[in-house]
Amino acid sequence: MITEIPVELSILSAGYCLHPERLTLRGGTLKPVAFPAGYALIRHPEYGPILFDTGYSARFFQETASLPASLYRKITPVVYREEESAVRRLQAGGISPEEVRYVVLSHFHADHIGGVRDFPQAQYIYLQKSYDAVSGLGPVRATKAGFLPGLLPDDFILRSIPVDEASAKRALPQGLPFTDAYDLLGDGSLLAVELSGHAAGMIGVFVSTAQHDYLLCADTVWSSRAFRENRKPHLAAGLIMSSRTEYHRNFERLRQLHEQFPKLRIVPSHCREALAHWGTGGVI
User: Fold this and answer.
1) Is residue 137 assigned to a domain?
2) Considering the domain boundaries, does residue 284 fall inside one?
3) Which residues form the Metallo-beta-lactamase domain (predicted)?
């Protein structure tokens, strides 16, 4: 086990967007393909249900109803059904919204924070510089950055537990291309590593079940084929990256992880293959 306390894990999605595959995978098709808005439900033995991101919600359409945010929806068409929302999935599995104690946010793009308002008792865990990168942006720049501030609750800051350079860290097993990780709950169960590049301050999280180790790697890549076949995104994708240099560094880290630890399950948030192989088909 990479982490110290095993958890139960459900990999799910709430809606999807359409994009030409070639933008995300060099040599891919020009036809629009579906990229699920993935998230994960982590059942912790002490803290109960925890979410890693939330996918879309109906609120996304409300927040993109007028300019400039409506450009987001036009450039990246979204397909969504209300029964797919994180809150509805959890309720169908017998988990009330109030039971969710923590929501870990990999970064602040709308397809990752779309459902955070649906969990009124949750505290939010994220890397401070991820929020700092978007919180002061005006409407046009926020839209360009994929951030819709209306998706966050009014008391977001009061309910936040931001992670910064001074936060508790733990050493990772030798051989991993990361020296240490942020210990999000202080018990070694959720170990976060910075994966900036796609977005400033983006994090991925190592979790372990009784059977497998996982890295929930958010948008470090858009598909498993990328790191498996060494196929970076089209150069045009760099226009929306916070740092091309950091993106390439963390892309190579995923390649190393896959080659050196082939049994590690690396889960990109938008990968249909990972969702099909390790997801629960919407059942919790």
Assistant:
1) yes
2) no
3) 36-270
Other beta carbons within 10 Å of 240? 14
Query: Looking at residue 232, which CATH number applies to its domain?
Result: 3.60.15.10
Q: What's the pLDDT tens digit per position in 238-256?
A: 778 899 999 999 999 999 9
Number of domain units in the chain: 1
Nearest to 240 by CA among 196, 269, 199: 199
- Hey, what are 170's tokens? 């733990």
- Domain extent, residue 27, equals 8-278
Percent helix / strand / coil, the chain, rounded to 5: 30, 25, 45
Q: Which of 83, 74, 62 is nearest to 19 (CA)?
A: 74
**What is the pTM (predicted TM-score) of this model?**
0.97
Residue 98 lies in a domain: yes
> Cα separations (Å) of 100 from 95, 135, 136, 141, 275?
8, 24, 28, 32, 22
Name the residue with tokens 């350079």. 165
Q: For residue range 74-100, list pLDDT tens digits in order.
A: 989 999 999 999 999 999 999 999 999
Let me know if residue 92 belongs to a domain: yes
